[in-house]
């Protein structure tokens, strides 16, 4: 069913923490992006998280970033009302310094704006755009859920008791992290909630690199500038990569 480990998956969690810390550093930008994501998810289905799994995932993620209720409510009301903005989901793939791999997910109401901006961010920061499929095959879609106040063995018991199939459980200094298939996201959370755990340090549907690389100091500085430039773009929702920051 699963294993309890700590090295490779733990390194992946470090990259997620790095991304989360970067997003936390600019809360207004994060909140604006969540507003769009909540609106789009609510418009695609019922504006009720219990009837719309995609919306429920976004709202669970929003909690871990402390998105204010007012922003969530505004996006939900807009979706329920006369909001008629049309957003398209786009994925771009590319390479950074020293062959680093990058995936960029965007939500945009203007494709003609988004693609040139993403390409420019790559070109100005030592990277280049790739064709569709050039990078994504080296990443795995993954649900990542973290909790505090439990150890790995206790979390394993919770998952076994609920008969939830997960890939791995990693005991980190700050939290215990559960890695699972994306379709198990809700099952993992419900298992925790049944065990009395209702707060999550992370609740993400992400793309985890199958292998990681380390960059020389100068290349890492340039790569961090690339990631920052991409995340600063209005239409970019998520940026994934295979670099292990040191």
Give structural notes.
The chain is an alpha+beta fold. The protein is built from 8 helices and 9 strands. Strands 1-6-7-5-8 form a 5-stranded mixed beta sheet, with helices on both faces. It has a 4-stranded antiparallel beta sheet with strand order 4-2-3-9. A hairpin with a 4-residue loop joins strand 6 and strand 7. Helix 2 runs antiparallel to helix 3 and helix 2 packs parallel to helix 4. It is globular, with a radius of gyration of 18 Å. The model has no long low-confidence stretch (mean pLDDT 89). Its main location: cytoplasm. InterPro entries: Integrase-like_N (IPR017856), TACO1_YebC-like_2nd/3rd_dom (IPR048300), TACO1_YebC_N (IPR049083), Transcrip_reg_TACO1-like (IPR002876), Transcrip_reg_TACO1-like_dom3 (IPR026564), Transcrip_reg_TACO1_YeeN (IPR026562), YebC-like (IPR029072). Pfam families: TACO1_YebC_N, Transcrip_reg.
Ranges where pLDDT stays below 50 over 5 or more residues in a row are none
Q: Return the CATH topology of the largest domain.
A: Alpha-Beta Plaits
| CATH architecture assignment name of the largest domain | 2-Layer Sandwich
Main pleated-sheet profile: 5 strands, mixed
Helix content: 40-55%
Number of domains: 3
In whole angstroms, the N-to-C terminal distance is 32 Å
Mean pLDDT: 89
Order of helices and strands: EHHHHEEHEEHEEHEHE
Number of helices: 8
Structural class: alpha+beta
Region (Disordered): 1-20
Domain TACO1/YebC-like second and third: 87-243
Domain TACO1/YebC-like N-terminal: 11-81
Main location: cytoplasm
